Structure formats: C-alpha cells, structure tokens
Amino acid sequence: MISVTTRKGQKIALFGLGGSGMVTAEALVAGGAELTAFDDNPAKVEEASGKGIPTGNLREFDFSKADALVLAPGVPLTHPKPHWTVDLASLHNVPIVGDVELFADERRALAPHCQFIAITGTNGKSTTTALISHILASSGRDVQMGGNIGRAVLSLDELFNDRIYVVECSSYQIDLAPQLDPSIGILLNLAPDHLDRHGTMEHYSEIKSRLVAKSTTSIIGNDDAHCVDIASRLEQSGKSITRISNQNLNSGYGVLDEQVVSFNSGDENFVANLHGIATLRGRHNAQNAAAAIATCRAVGLSDEEIQTGLNSFPGLAHRMEIIGSVDDVLYVNDSKGTNADAAAMALASFENIHWIAGGLSKEGGIESLRPLFGRINKAYLIGEVAPEFSVTLGNDVVFEISQTLDVAVANAANDAEQSKDKAVVMLSPACASFDQYPNFEIRGEAFRTEVEKLNNLIPYGGI
C-alpha cells in the first residue's frame, strides 16, 4: 500500500467506501490524516469501522474546517447533478480530489524521478495499459500496474524512484485529479461515452485532455477528430506531442502492413512486427501497440525487448479474448465492448460473425455499426435493448431475440457449426451490462461458462 503521507494532520472527509474508496481510506489513515469516512450504504460504513477507519455522517461534518473532500470515482462530481457532499464542500471552497490525485501528490513528494505512465481514452486503454506493463515486466523492469484496470492505485507497492507505475485512468478519476502530471501521458482516442456523467462531448473531451496537458511526454492518438484537435492545441501552446496511429503518419508512430513504423518527416523506420500476434489482432490493437511501443521506447527499452514483449502478450480478459474453438468455430469474449465504437473494433477484426449483442443501451445505439453489418451472419440479441437493436438491424441482418446469454450462446453455436465457412461466435454487446449483470467482467465470465459447456471445445492456448 502507498500511505498518503502528504495529507498527514489534515482534516479529510471521504465519501464512497467501495473497492477503491476503502483502499483510499486505509491509505489516508496509514499516512496520518484526520479522516472522517462515509457512504450511503450503512453496511460499508460498518465494514470500514471494523477495519479501524474513522467514520461519521458527513451531513453533520463541519466542512468549514476541512482541508479536502476525497471522492470515490463512482460518485458524481458534476452530472447528472453534483453529489450532496460535493455541494457541501463547494459551499466552503473545499478542494475535491480522488485517489489518482493523492497518488500523484505522493509521487511528487517521495519519488519524483520514478516513471509514472498514465493511460486514458474511450476505448483500448485497458489493453494498452496491460500491454505496456507486460512489455516492461518481460524486459526485467520493476513494474506496478493499477488504476481503472482493476487494482486501486493506492494499493500498489510503495513508491521508489526506480519503480515504474502504469496506471489506467478513467474520465471520472481524471476529473478528480486537477494536478495530474504523469511522466508519460497517453490519450488514445475519444468517442461519445459517459455523457450522463459529463454532460457534453466537449466537457468529456476537456477532462480527458487534462491527462496529457501536464505530462512530461504526451502521446496522443491521431485517428479521431477530437484527439487531433487536442494534439494541435497543445502543440500551438508550445508542447511537444508524439502522435500514434493505426495507419501511416508524417511524424510519430504508425502501422504499415502489420509493422509498427516510426515516421520522421516522412522517413520510415521499422520498429516492431505485429504479424501473427493473435492477441493484437485488428486495427484498433495496432494503435494500442503503437502507443505501447512509443511509451516503452521513451522509457528506454530496446526494440528487441519490445518485440519480445509483444510476441508473448497474453491479451486482456474480456477484450477480444479467444476462449477456444469447436471444429472451425472460434469463440471470442469481447464483453468489454460496452459501446458501439468498441464493438466496431471487434466486428472489423472478423468475418462470418454470429454476433451476441445487447444489454443496457448506450447513447446512439448501433446505427454507427451499419457499415459492418455485412460481416455479421446472424445477430442474437439479449437484454433490455433487444427490441431497439432489432429495429436497427431490420432487414439488413438476420437476427433473433434470445433475451438471455445462455440461449444466445446455444443458438449461435448451433448455427455457426452448420456454417460452411469458418465462423466466429462473438459476444461484443455494444451496451452496458447493468440490466442483467453487475459489470462487464461477470457478463464475460458468464459467456465463458456457457462456451465451456459445449462439446469438443478446444481451449485457446495462447501464442
């Protein structure tokens, strides 16, 4: 654990005692803060008290004497409306921060020379975070990986200057980190998402841009208009930007024929080969790989070390994860494809797809996927959004409303096995999971469980 020593003696209010919130509370107590923690769930408050965390009703807390309000990332800061603790803190001009901000404070105080690599983007950030960590670890570096990818950032091992921290940052976390200043900041891409929490695309984009604005080295995707605009604005302000793309560039890191190339005023230099790496299949993963390669080169790895790490990358659970095959039918778990842009990346990577989609609708539905409908043999619609998706598919894609995942897998498997060409059964929902599952991970595990029931399944053994 990283104790938050920079808040020693300060009067801190903390709201939100879920996974990362509980870790943050423990880290603040360990660092000597005068903490009062609270949650709307009495069971969480009781659990925290049992761990020795000071708790109290923040409705009765004297915010006029507080040094900070620490929010868990799931607690609304601005939209759809500020949480009541935010209103109380704002009334007394109390700074509002989150766990990533506390981590950044500790790094500046205790290990200012350690590499802090922060990754964000609408899609691909978890894969890129895992890929960077894997390449660094495979080269023998001392690496800690956490943040939005699953392990709370303050639960990582203590800070040392020769240790590398690779941290995935959600927009919620960035919004609570006003002084975020990673040594390497990566912004992969931007598309409409989480607008219920940020109000507008402009606000969402502005929040995401903060991660690269104060980075020592800024790596920004060049494959969507929002990121191109952010990169251009930062360059105009005098900041040096490294651009990355899933195609060629005038300057930066791009991809030509499954090869990552560094471009310098049009000159091309081979860096790494992605051919045959199943866990990095698709153009979206080409951009992820370009970002990882640019990062690892900036850290000081050789091209040989980078290629070795790429070749052995096991992939990310629930993101185009190959479960296995039955005869010529491949089963792919893309439960992390929680919006249309993410699902598009998966659909573009395969053909003859038996597509399992649906859940809790995201803004825009699946209309943007229409150019990829030709890759879909049949769709199996589940969850609350099934009727809406069926209207969009209309007469362009054969579909059935399966309602539940078990029915969808069974029917898709049966249909795919009768297909003459090599087929893919893929869960890529283009939706949130919350109508039927607590999160995309549990949805993905449910898919795996159903696939593993199939006769003659050959599990995927990796590269």
What key phrases describe this protein's structure?
Protein-Tyrosine Phosphatase, Chain A, Rossmann fold, seven-stranded mixed β-sheet, alpha/beta, 463 residues
Could you provide a short overview of the structure?
By secondary structure, this protein is an alpha/beta fold. The protein is built from 15 helices and 20 strands. It is globular.
Explain this structure to me?
- The chain is of the alpha/beta class and 463 residues long.
- It has 3 domains: 91 residues, NAD(P)-binding Rossmann-like Domain (Rossmann fold, 3-Layer(aba) Sandwich); 212 residues, 3-Layer(aba) Sandwich (UDP-N-acetylmuramoyl-L-alanine:D-glutamate ligase), CATH 3.40.1190; 139 residues, Mur ligase, C-terminal domain (Protein-Tyrosine Phosphatase, Chain A).
- The protein is built from 15 helices and 20 strands.
- It has a 7-stranded mixed beta sheet with strand order 18-17-16-19-15-14-20, with helices on both faces.
- α3 links the parallel β3 and β4.
- The two termini are 34 Å apart.
- α5 crosses α10, α5 packs across α11 and α14 packs across α15.
- 34% of the residues lie in helices and 22% in strands.
> How far do the termini sit from each other?
34 Å
CATH-assigned homologous superfamily of the largest domain: Mur-like, catalytic domain
Question: Total strand count, please?
Answer: 20
Read across the widest sheet, the strand sequence of neighbours is: 18-17-16-19-15-14-20
Helix coverage percent: 25-40%
Helix-and-strand structural type: alpha/beta
Oligomer: single chain
If classified by CATH, what would the architecture of the largest domain be? 3-Layer(aba) Sandwich
CATH topology of the largest domain: UDP-N-acetylmuramoyl-L-alanine:D-glutamate ligase
Counted up, domains total 3
Rg estimate, integer Å: 23 Å
Described by strand count, sense and barrel closure, the largest sheet is: 7 strands, mixed
In DSSP terms (H or I, runs of 4 or more residues), the helix count works out at 15
| Proportion in β-strands | 15-25%
Coarse morphology: globular
Mean pLDDT: 94
The low-confidence runs, each spanning 5 or more residues with pLDDT under 50, are none
